Amino acid sequence: MRNSEFTCGVLEGFYGRPWSVDQRYQLFQWIQNWDGMNTYMYAPKDDLYHRSKWRELYPVPSLQELQALADTCRQKELQFIYAIAPGLDITYSDENDWDYLLKKIGQVQSIGVNQFAILFDDIPPELSNQDQIEFSSFAEAQAYVTNRLFEYLSNSSLVFCPTVYCGRMADYDVPGNVYLNELGQSLIKGIDIFWTGPEVVSKEIPVESIRELRRIIKRKPIIWDNLHANDYDIRQIFFGPYTGRSLELKDELAGILSNPNCQFWANYNPLKTLAVFNAVSESWDPRQTFLDSSKEWMRYFGNDELIEEEILLLGDCFYSPGHMGDRGIQLVESVHCFMNHDPADWGVHLDSFKKLEAVLNSLCMKLMAASNRDLLYDFYLALWELREEMEYVSKWVEWKLNGKGEFKSPEIVPRRQGIIYALQKVIHPD
Ligand code: GDL
């Protein structure tokens, strides 16, 4: 492992299409270049052999691909962690399942991997009939298999993801959670434990919440950080900085691994700013770090004509869960003003809106012509939706200022259609 003992890096642990091999190589290059990062964890939920078909061995071509990834990490002195997720249907007490697990781990060991994770997130919380005879609790069953695996791996490292992996899942009562208390007691001390914070997607992780958790699990957790994950809502994308965590938090942790946007190219700022967060010790300014990293991000778009203002608008509009950056806030404020006030009271908003609209349009034009098509396709949905809304507002503003009769914009509204829209209208009428 490079630089320090603190694990920091990227966890490919989202649902949906896994990243491509080339994207992962790009990622390793970034991690190697950045101070503060040292780890990549392989855990794509939809790699069949990682989760649904965890018992089956990788076919040769996929194994070779994994080996190439692991080799590249080794050459770059990065930690490569392979994660397996048997929780959907494992029978914890079944020796056959244990053999399957060992064979699979053995296959991955055979390509030179010696760091592992075993994940029990998002699984049915019931023990099978057979396991109910053998174990008195879920925690006991999971600890049994995990400890056994840790002992089998002898010198290798192992990280465990519990089924209760955030405050919300413990009904915000971590000290009172029987499952977590039991795990803290029974998991061998050398095994690391993942935690996502108070929530699955934690906008903030208070230091005190981790101190409390530490007392229960009897070790420092590794944060599985879903701050920039977007697999739960494909209409969102997050280009903003690592934020909502203080530097003090690092003292309470064994590591931080970010599980970011499914769209690989969206992750430059989220990841680079995490690397900086880990590298600094005195002061930490997420906004300034975002501004700095946005300038670096530009070089990956494949269009030298892009300017900083365009990239910053992009980042500010799609910032982080529940937050926008300055330009995004400004845009919404202007539209709010248009919709709620007479044109005579629009003041600076009209000018400010038109400027942002012009920047957005030129950004879109340049992206359409950018040579990194992979990046363009990653951003398409989000950008397109924003542009459509802007176009709608623009026409509406024009009509307010100069139009006559009813406002008509037939080609844009109504927007959402189809089954999802119909269901949502019934389920959430408000
Ligand atoms: C989860 C899943 C993760 C997913 C994330 C965001 C954990 C431990 N597991 O619950 O795979 O990407 O939410 O949707 O976070």
CATH architecture of the largest domain: Alpha-Beta Barrel
End-to-end span in angstroms? Answer: 52 Å
CATH homologous superfamily placement of the largest domain: Glycosidases
Indicate the percent of residues in helices: 40-55%
- Briefly, what CATH class of the largest domain? Alpha Beta
So what's the overall shape?
Answer: elongated
Low-pLDDT runs of 5+ residues are none
Which ligands, by name, code or SMILES, are bound?
2-(acetylamido)-2-deoxy-D-glucono-1,5-lactone
Strand order of the largest sheet: 1-2-3-4-5-6-7-8
Largest sheet: 8 strands, parallel, barrel
CATH topology of the largest domain: TIM Barrel
Oligomer: single chain
How many structural domains can be distinguished in the coordinates? 2
Pairing-aware structural class of the strands and helices? Answer: alpha/beta
Topology as H/E string? EHEHEHEHHEHEHEEHHHHHHH
By DSSP, the count of extended strands is 8
Radius of gyration: 24 Å
Report strand %: 5-15%
- The count of helical stretches stands at 14
Name the average pLDDT: 95
